[in-house]
Amino acid sequence: MHLVEITGYGSRGEGVARLEGGKAVFIPGAARGDVLEVWLNEDNGRSARAEIVRIVTPSPYRVEPDCPVYQHCGGCDFRHITYEEELWAKLRRINDAISRIGGLPLQIDEILTTGRINGYRNKAIFHNDGTSLGFYAPKSHNLVPIEHCLLLKDELNAALKDLLLSKIPDLPVSEVTLRSGRNGINPPLEEEMDGLIFGVSGFFQINTGAALLLFQKARKYAAMSKDEVLIDLYCGVGALTLFVGRDAGRAIGVESNPTAVEAARENALRNGLKHIEFYAADAATWASATANPDCVIVDPPRKGLLPGVKRNILKMSPKRIVYISCDPATLARDLREFDGYAVKSACAVDMFPRTANVECCCLLERSEECFT
Predict the structure, then answer these.
(1) pTM higher than 0.85 for the full model?
(2) Residue of 326, 347, 360, 362 marked catalytic
């Protein structure tokens, strides 16, 4: 047994403490300020993981979890602390990465939130074992039955209830996906954002309200005018391309998934934005002799930008780069490697309240001086 005090949080929301000798130990369900008695269940030499045996002194930020399966299903990370503490943890994680990995003199103090911490998810995927629908427990295929999820929109919980009342073994699939839009839960689904209508197919933002905050910030950072060209790499179904590109003289979305590109083209037609084009291509190799972008938007997967993508962006040499990231560590790495660009503005967006995930939006401007 070890007696520890929690001083912060890890990237997955675990509490972090130091053992005698300085080794970091990660403890799920711990809160900053807790004094705990813990038992080590994993030790890899450089760090360890532990579970709580007893709360000796509770943190002032600790609250009673409001979900009966919180400690089992793995869907949430922060239901044991206040929402204010959760936002603190997310900003601290981002700024630690920027300082430690990026080596940049940048401090992000703004985190955008809708204020809605429950009932925001418009999509859920449930596993079906023939008797129950639910989520897998962390790092396992042990099904945790779910009858009501606090993160889901009301209409999805209602649909889940209907499924549970039906004969689950008769469902012919091992997974059940529930999704809603502005027109209910029956396809084809649509979403509306600031006057634009999008078909919901393939990837679309899980939290529409927070996505709007993110898109508005990206639009402000891009600051497009009618005599400028925008290129959006990793454009998906084109929602952000259309949202920001409507201000440009010309906008181009690039996406490697041909199905997503077709959906993006349909979204452009749906909104009458004829000056916006979409191409199925690799972000690392796509180029156009007729497009010299004034601004490039990137919203890469969690692993960040591949070296070839960074080289392609630097070759295009836009005046501005808007970088949206879902992983502070890879964001910090990539910001450090954009030679000739300086970070002018940045903010966080709480896209997934009660989880450890957090989004960032950064504006880089071409400059003779940079932070590196």
Answers:
(1) yes
(2) 326
